[in-house]
Amino acid sequence: MAEPSLPSIDPKSGFCSKTKTFHSLRPSLHLPRQNLPLSVASYAISLLPSPLPETTALIDGATGNRLSYPEFLLKAQTLASSLQTLTGLSKGDTVFILAPTTLKIPILYFSLLSLGVVVSPANPAGSPYEISRQINLTRPVIAFATSSTASKLPPLPKPTTILLDSPEFESLMIHCTTTNKPHQNVINQSDPAAILYSSGTTGNVKGVVLTHRNFITLISGYNASRQDIESPPVTLLTVPLFHIFGFFAILGNIAMGETSVLMERFEFGAMLRAVEKFRVTGMPVTPPLVVAMVKSEEVRKYDLSSLMVVGCGGAPLGKEVAEQFRSKFPNIEIVQGYGLTESTGTATRTIGPEESQHYGSAGRLAEYLEAKIVHPTTGEALSPGQQGELWLRGPTIMKGYIGDDDANASTLDSEGWMKTGDLCYFDHDGFLFIVDRLKELIKYKAYQVPPAELEQVLQSHPEISDAAVVPYPDEHVGQIPMAFVVRRPGSTLNEPQVMDFVAKQVAPYKKIRRVAFINSIPKNPAGKILRRELVSLAISRSSSKL
């Protein structure tokens, strides 16, 4: 990757005028040699101090149960030996995991990754149809589930399902049938480490193959920005561990020697109690959660003084909401970032208070990536300030989609560029701004209307607790913007008031032209709006009135 110091690269934006490529403005990373055999589990553990400190690695947010770092690593190693001996699991096998977040999940991840086994966790709330599709994609040899999720699993080629909430599994972490350490296969950094599932908000779910090298690069970035502090940070993981956001967070937290507080299921009040009880210093959040913290009066009941930083990702966060958060919580730094499952969860982020106040931005390009902004129609690479599709290239980009050659061909090009499908631009200081998903733009007459922009306007209304905007078919103009709105308790806000509020702040072609009030906005675990569900709801409501 070219260095920002080269003459053709703008030191402010990172843009190379010769290649039309954006380069990272961060210091370069020193990664392990690419041909060095190394698993992400081994790399993460190598970053921990020796001898291991007796600090807490994991806390169950509901029960308060804790595991120290020595306990965590002993259980992971014992489990790896037990699984290798009893099940014959070996490098290259795929394991499917269908279970809610508990202390056992990180132990299972590290034990499997250390064996070179491919980890494939899925949403336990998924339907049997969705789970069958995921299993057909990944062809696992063994499944790990719980007594409440196992019934969703279809028959496997090897009919082996291990229940994580059984006494038998507990014994596998404590009593190994052999006194030997697990046999160490040669694990190459290019080997698959995990198959995670893209959100599927705009089509069928895809299995994203991520390598050990992808995660090693990510953790190396964590390590490069690590700060020397007296006591380890305490991170509350509000996101599920089967999602890329939670998956890379738990790997990174362990590698950095931090304390992770886990939640089996997210609940707003439980989150606030956990911050107070465990003196949480940081947590990853999604934009809807930031909105909830801004508008909820419940937060005033809890002592959140330990909280120093929240990392926001998963969807664009509006400037107005970010400013309102800063006003309400002046001592909490809100760090924004952007990434996809296909880029191992990260691509850009803000670092430090100064960058964090660049509101509306998703931050600057990560140390290990290059980017292009490409015109969706002409294919021309664009300059700072111009909107187009974001393309990314670097060592965190996925190996590909499993069993989907068509998707691979349309997403990855021969030069290693990955097309994100997101409409974005870099400003002249190298900060990325997400406009919206290209496929989700509303086509009104000859104009393109980004739903995310209208959602940010709606969320700034004091009587609106949440909102989503979708395209509604119209025979005269093609599509019109329709808003689904969740009113705050006691509000009598009506349709004309909503439309008038938005109309005063946007261009005429962006105006909201239909409004429906609902109790909640459907979202996936990462906080992304499930627009297809809302479009179906809008059309069915219209049909029922005919």
Describe what you observe in this structure.
The chain is of the alpha/beta class. It has three domains: 8-31 and 270-280 and 293-440, ANL, N-terminal domain (Rossmann fold, 3-Layer(aba) Sandwich); 38-266, ANL, N-terminal domain (Rossmann fold, 3-Layer(aba) Sandwich); 444-545, GMP Synthetase, Chain A, domain 3, CATH 3.30.300.30. It is built from 15 helices and 27 strands. A six-stranded antiparallel β-sheet has the order 1-2-18-19-21-22. A hairpin with a 2-residue loop joins strand 23 and strand 24 (447-449). Helix 2 (69-87) packs across helix 3, helix 6 (212-224) packs across helix 7 and helix 9 (287-295) crosses helix 10 (319-328). It is globular. The chain starts with 14 loop residues before the first strand and ends with a helix.
* Number of self-contained structural domains: 3
Q: Which structural category fits the helices and strands? A: alpha/beta
How widely separated are the two ends? 59 Å
CATH topology of the largest domain: Rossmann fold
Radius of gyration: 23 Å
Global geometry: globular
CATH level-two architecture of the largest domain = 3-Layer(aba) Sandwich
Going by CATH, the homologous superfamily of the largest domain would be ANL, N-terminal domain
The helicity comes to 25-40%
Largest sheet: 6 strands, antiparallel
Describe the strand arrangement of the main beta sheet, using strand numbers: 1-2-18-19-21-22
Flag low-confidence runs.
none
Given this structure, which CATH class of the largest domain is correct?
Answer: Alpha Beta
Proportion of beta-strand residues = 15-25%
**Mean pLDDT level:** 90
How many DSSP H or I helices? 15
Total strands: 27
